[in-house]
Each structure stands twice: as structure tokens, then as C-alpha cells.
Amino acid sequence: DTGVSQNPRHKITKRGQNVTFRCDPISEHNRLYWYRQTLGQGPEFLTYFQNEAQLEKSRLLSDRFSAERPKGSFSTLEIQRTEQGDSAMYLCASSLGGGYTGNTIYFGEGSWLTVV
Amino acid sequence: DQQVKQNSPSLSVQEGRISILNCDYTNSMFDYFLWYKKYPAEGPTFLISISSIKDKNEDGRFTVFLNKSAKHLSLHIVPSQPGDSAVYFCAATLTGNQFYFGTGTSLTVIP
Fold it and tell me: What is the DSSP letter of B26?
């Protein structure tokens, strides 16, 4: 068990370009979450998957954002036509079942996005 | 609207003393609460949790207290150690799916 893995760890992109982040959850975890964190704020929920099904999306997840988990294992988060306001750390987390006692969500180290 | 609030952005404590970090929430339906610790350039690390049916949970040097009537929880670290210096986030959920995080408190433990 190597924990939740995210890559790339850092991405600098020009405004208007597309970026994609990948998350590999803890192997036996069936739930996968995406959060976003900006400076001075706590993580904000974006979306979560139960296996390959995307079950909930935040209103923060605009049409330019798309997340997939095609085989119920790794997930990708794509941001199209990036804007400077997209600059943030994108955090992936996973859990075995819902995030209750015994099913704590575990975070990866995050992917930093800077849009210039 | 911020459903989970941490009103103290920073806290400094002497090594060996108690650190008390506070968190308030507005949604009385939240039924599970967690504390995470975060070092710079890393993702949050789970520290301790508490269900709404309890008012206290202890794990080594860390104790979380929950006061449902006041919609308040706190994290006590005793004794504080320099390695505890980090940003601490409290989080709450009512479904186990979406977690609401506070803005964090930066703890500095002075040797």
C-alpha cells in the first residue's frame, strides 16, 4: 500500500490550455474524491466516485471540468480552457466505503496547478 | 457559505504544553467530524475523528471533544511537540460522501 498517488505534482500552463491530472487511489478503496484547495482555504469538495460511477458533483465543477474513473481504479480530472482562477491545489482522496468511522478518507499529496 | 469555521488562523504554544484548536459548524445535521493535519506542499493527513453520538474521542496525545448543543468541536494535543507544528483542518459530513472543511489553524510549537 503506497497511499494515494497523484501526478503531475506541479503543472504550469498558459491560460486557455487544457490540463489533466491523474489519481491512483489506495488499491482496495472503492471511493475516490476530488477536492480543490486555494491559498488560505480548506479543501473544497468537487466530486466523488463509487467504483466507476460519478455519484455527486459540486457546483464548483463547471462545464470546463470533467472527471472520470473508467475502470473503477485510477481517475483523471481534466480542466479545459484553463483560467487564472483555476490555479489551486487539486487533491484526490480515497476511502473504503463512505467516509464514516473506519472508512476515513485518505488524501494524496495534491497536484499544484498554476495558470499564467 | 462556510459551514465549518476555524476562527483562529494561527496558534503558538510552548513545547510540552497543551494545544487547543477550535472549530465551529452551522449544520446541525452533520454527524461525523474529523481533524486533519497538513504540512506544506503535502496533502492533509487524517488525525482523529468523532461520531456525533459521542462527545469525546481519544487517541494517544490527541483528544477531540464535541459539543453538539454549541455546534463546536475542539482538538486537544497534550503534550505538544515541535513535530506537531502544521496546519490543522477540521471537517464535517452528514452523508459520508461530501466533507466540509474549515479554513485551517496554523499551529506552531515552540521548543
Answer: S
* Interatomic CA distance for residues B93 and B32, integer angstroms: 6
pLDDT tens readout for residues A42-87: 999 999 999 999 999 998 888 999 999 998 899 999 999 999 999 9
Residues of A in contact with B43 (CB under 8 A): 4, 6, 91, 93, 107-110
> Across the interface, do A107 and B45 touch by the CB < 8 Å criterion?
yes
Provide the shortest C-alpha distance from residue B46 to chain A (in Å).
7
Q: Compute the distance between CA of residue A51 and CA of residue B33 in angstroms, rounded to an integer.
A: 24
Contact B46, A106 (CB under 8 A): yes
Q: In what order do the strands lie in the sheet with B56-59?
A: B4-5, B19-25, B72-77, B62-67, B56-59
pLDDT, one tens digit per residue, over A6-30 is: 999 999 999 999 999 999 999 989 9
